[in-house]
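Handover notes (outgoing to incoming on-call)

Open items:
1. Glycoside hydrolase family 2 protein: sequence verified, structure written out, both below. Nothing else pending on this one.
2. Nothing else urgent.
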Amino acid sequence: MKKIGVFSVLVLLSLVDVYGQDLIQTNSSKRIRDNFDFNWQFHKGDIAIKKIVKAGGQGGITDVNVKVVTARDTIINYMDAGSYKIFYPADWKQVNLPHDWAVEGTFVHDNSMGNQPAVSGYLPTGTGFYRKEFEIPETDKGKKISIEFDGIFRNSTVWVNGHLMGNHLSGYTPSNYDLTDVLRYGNEGKNVILVKADASEYEGWWYEGAGIYRHVWLIKTNRLHVHRFGTYITTPQVSDAEAAVSISTTLKNEYRETKKITLVSKIVNSNGVVIDTKIASDSLPAYSQMEIAQKGQIKNPLLWSPETPNLYKVLTEVVDNSNIVDTYETTFGVRTIDVNKNGVFLNGKLYPVKGTCNHQDFAGIGVALPDKINWYKLKLLKEVGSNAYRCSHHLPTPELLNMCDSMGLLVLDENRFLSSSEEGIKDLTTMLYRDRNHPCIFMWSMENEEWIQGTVQGTRILETMVATTHKIDPTRKATAAMNHGRNDGGYSDVLDVVGYNYGDKQLAYVKDKEKYPERVLFCTESTSFISTRGEYANNWEKAYVSNLSKWEPGWGPFPGEDWADIVKYPYLGGTFVWTSFDYRGEPTPYQWPSVTSHFGFMDICGFPKDGYYAYKAAWTNTPVVHIFPHWNWPGKEGDSIQVHCYSNCEEIELLLNGKSIGKQKAVPYTKLIWKLIYKPGKLEARGYKKGKVVTTGIVETTTAPAQINLNSDTYKLKADGCDVAVIRVAIKDGKGRVVPTADNLVKFSIEGPGTIIGTGNGNPGSHEPDKASQRKAFNGYCLVLVQSQKEAGEIRLKAVSEDLKETQITITAGY
Ligand code: GAL
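Glycoside hydrolase family 2 protein structure tokens:
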């Protein structure tokens, strides 16, 4: 690391004056980061690119304004010496990103289809192409221009104006290409980018989607600029009175001459007030980069935690010859984190991690999540009382980490593969460089349950990865998520923290702690309870799993029970429940017709299952009494029935039609069960604390479906073509009670500047298309997602269904 010498400090002091007198000018070459998501064209299927196209002697490929000349999919033909032309397939369709073509497909029950049809949800993947035409003004000549893909699933190849820019295998790490030299500026012509994504191979055992499913950015900077992921902010000393801030900035000079540079780093609080400014000067040779270290401070820092997600920023200015030529913003937080043999300590206090494991997808949209949907999912997690998010089993989209910073959720950021190959280390280091400034990240996970865990080779690979991680981010510990039994052979010894998946089995983690008292343990994964929302019997034909009993798989406890271990053995640090939401693929315990998993305590739409309340009871102080099943059992009058209850009250009293059936003392984190004789009517559970009723839970026999209810999470959208309203659709009886068995088909129509981008209902056996304007309700509910367009106005969504009273809502797009 480059240190600033005494001489530099003197120079700096004089520059403070200069700076104070505002002599440094801002010029037009400041960094621009443009969203590049709109107006792409998409072609599903392969296109035979016969040659690796290079720039031809006549200036390369000209592929604008050419016609389709063949019916074949061939796009590149040799035309004449030194130049190529691209002929498009006729079926390019207009798309905006993020885009996942797999979720647009039809479910196929064909085990010979592609790879792992069941685990990826029986949706075909294959290969697809994207292209986009764009113009770059003459005035951008001389700048550095690059493109950043936050994530393409997967094996992507990029050409710009016919020049092969490169190939990127990972479906989860970002890729970046420097386009400066191959672009056409001003009158030189239009630019064309072509992206191939080959999703026919898989990286995991869950639905992974297909296509450019995260954002794309076009980045323009001066030739003297902050390097990609070029800042690293840490707070090596934190006290109530003061936090020391260590700022490391990597600058890149891509001019042909040496540059005398001044680096200004301003620490800014959440009100935008500059609270410290550090200035350094140096000289940076042509085509080279340099890391500059600066030290700042914050008086009386506001600490970051999930409960108080206070953030600061470092604003970086690169000054060349009195001009600010580049600006860069890094968000950071002030907090201490220690995962040690006694547990997880945040800001010096034991902080039990109430976490969930999460795959990326959501109803209606596959893995192509508008930011709003990531925000919505996190909001639901906060509501259940969770304070932590595990990105299983790969790094997430960067916006999600920004949200975890600002909404307050700790993150276990996970690398995809156990690999120390060049490619493997590149993926790992990309995650570390991209993400290490986020205060939300409390630990790095090297991998999850790879088969060579615990082997000699696995151990060597892991050791290299851990060492690499320590070098790039010495402030956080490294773990790996392991099935118990795979952690021997020295594998655990090279980790800072030994991650236990399902360590509750015969209390494996507790036994290990007795054996290795110095071991730092963490519960990386638990539960895997399977259930289908609103179902109370297993049904192989329809692929439903009852919420009442524990059947499969054999490796996890009932919802909430995992938390009892964390309370009893705080050294376990916390847990990450498998999973918060159902996800496509991995349909354990069934195969076809099941197309989604059953592991979530919410379904794929975010509707709570019964297990949700076990966690709400365990993780919040809000009094919870949740009884199930529902109370619509025609024909079962006089039969015996079990009533189950999740609660955090001390005692629960059950009343059927006003008559007490008795009280039970609650055992924390354990389900209560009553047996009674079924009679329609109203079943009520009263939750007592200190002898007083603090809350009640009710299930009631309803009459037939009579009306539709639409409930949007917002009635105002930004008219930006990105924002989304999440609309919960409920089928209710004449008295406004949700009918828990209703499966009416609801048809949606929309007027105004909004688009239905997907539907869902949480039924793991549903083969209805998600990309449609109708959906059957499943056990009373379905979901519709409405996205704004780039136009302000009133969006009216109407819902109709045979024999039901129709309804409509209005959402205003504009602010
Ligand atoms: C774990 C694994 C997860 C998921 C889960 C299902 O062992 O890490 O990815 O497969 O099992 O129970």
